[in-house]
Amino acid sequence: MILGFSIALVVFSLLLMLLVLMHKGKGGGLSDMFGGGMQSSVGGSSVAERNLDRITVVVGLVWFAIIVALGILMKLDA
């Protein structure tokens, strides 16, 4: 069971990293270093950006739940 949660944690970690990197830079910080700060969004966020935000939040919550479950399982196993 711990092995399954560990594999799921690795998969969700990689997925979360990919989703975060897909977001547009909002200006300032590291996004300016790579040219992301030069763009200005005139019309608010599109449907795709809002969906990407929602998916990122859900994957982040699942990632957090897996970490908590792994911690509980390891504590009970010891």
Automatic annotation (TrEMBL):
Transmembrane spans: 55-74
Locations listed in the record: Cell membrane; Membrane
Presence of the UniProt keyword Iron in the record: no
Assigned keywords, A-Z: Cell membrane, Membrane, Protein transport, Translocation, Transmembrane, Transmembrane helix, Transport
Predominant cellular place of this UniProt entry's protein: membrane
UniProt entry tagged with the keyword rRNA-binding: no
Matches recorded under Pfam families: SecG
Membrane topology: Multi-pass membrane protein
Family annotation (InterPro entries): SecG
Family label: Belongs to the SecG family.
Protein's job: Involved in protein export. Participates in an early event of protein translocation.
NCBIfam families named in the record: secG
Protein name: Protein-export membrane protein SecG
Lineage: Bacteria, Bacillati, Actinomycetota, Actinomycetes, Kitasatosporales
Gene name as annotated: secG
